[in-house]
Amino acid sequence: MFLVKRANFNKKFIIKGLITGILLSAFIYLSYFNIEYRFINTVLGLLGLYFLLTIPRPSVFFAGFTTGVLWCYWMTVSLEYYDLVYLTPILLILIGLVYGLIFLIFAIFDKTSIRLILIFTFTFIAPFGFNWMKFELIFIDSYLGTSKEDFALILLSLFLMIKLHRMKILSILPLLFAINIQNGLYIDNPNAKIAMPQMNIKQNLKWEKDYRNTIFEKNLFEINKAIENKKDLVILPETAYPTLLNKDEVLLKQLKDKSYKIDIITGSLFLEDNQYYNATYHISNGIVKIAKKVVLVPFGEEIPFPKFLVNIINDIFYNGAQDYAKASEATDFEIKGQKFRNAICYEATTDKIFENLNDVKYMIATSNNAWFTPSIEPTLQKLLLKYYSKKYDITIFHVVNGSENFIFRP
């Protein structure tokens, strides 16, 4: 009888954590299925945070485990391209454990006020340099704001709801100041007429030598099409040219010749001083400008561990490949008299790439999402770019291989 009661007790902990994790993740999956109702996202987000503040301590671990897996399972999709599919269940469990333990820290002291403070503190932390789990993002398509101040007001409102035994209506007051009903109707278009071709090159073909000419011909077709349509700029996605473009004189000359008719922005690799960079090339009137990536993808482009561990991991899992090198600051391109901040994939969803914007009002972000499709990764990335567009009041032109292109406006 005792064992039965204990099993039921443990099951309740798991169920409460599971429900909390689902509520905290619901907005991503609703967006994935193009279900974006502000009222639903507002209610589900508030319920998720309310439960996170009130469920028992053991349930918090299961909430973190569930949330981590639901937000980040897509990381396992890329393992097939490294012949590491067998690691999928191990990676899923590790993701769940990492976020389970992080969430458990929220409940290290059994006081709602401390849990609230630790949850808010987490919004400033990026475990292992990976910052895609943002609690503020829960309300990106809701009636509530997504700033730190808004999130603090939301937590305060929930805290008052929990603690006030009488006059619970007062708990709504902080929430009123967090309301954001801006419709985003203002559109500020740049001077340049921009072509954003939709690319869908599968990842298993992208780096095949026998397929490269097909990719190059596809890129050239899109450039010529943009010229025929009298565009000023054509943007191709991250690593649209799967080669060291600065070392391919024939290919680079072809693009330089085209650049007298149209500005070209394309992703490719760049080699300098025996270091490899993930880079963007801006080619205009025969002149090439290189923008090297500033923020690398943790565990994808760099291993965020001490050097001796980096070498061991690269030897075991990446056949001895070295981490990419990175630039120290962001690069701006000037097109038709206006500046565009360059961002490559992951870095477009980090605060660092938005430093020193000054008078820059536009960003060109390029990605290769073929690594992670089909999954929710493109959806989560889309929501994050929407968040950063609002946060920094900047229009983002996102050109992608493997998922849909978007323009995000503040």
TrEMBL record:
Pfam families: ApoNAT_membrane. It is found in: Cell membrane. It comes from the Bacteria. Residues 197-410 form the CN hydrolase domain. One of its GO terms (cellular component) is plasma membrane. InterPro entries: Apolipo_AcylTrfase, C-N_Hydrolase, C-N_Hydrolase_sf, Lnt_campylobact, Lnt_membrane_dom. GO terms for biological process: lipoprotein biosynthetic process. The chain crosses the membrane at residues 12-31, 37-53, 60-79, 85-109, 116-133. SUPFAM superfamilies: Carbon-nitrogen hydrolase (SSF56317). Keywords: Acyltransferase, Cell inner membrane, Cell membrane, Lipoprotein, Membrane, Transferase, Transmembrane, Transmembrane helix. Signal peptide: none annotated. NCBIfam families: lnt, PRK12291.1. Belongs to the CN hydrolase family. Apolipoprotein N-acyltransferase subfamily. This is Apolipoprotein N-acyltransferase.
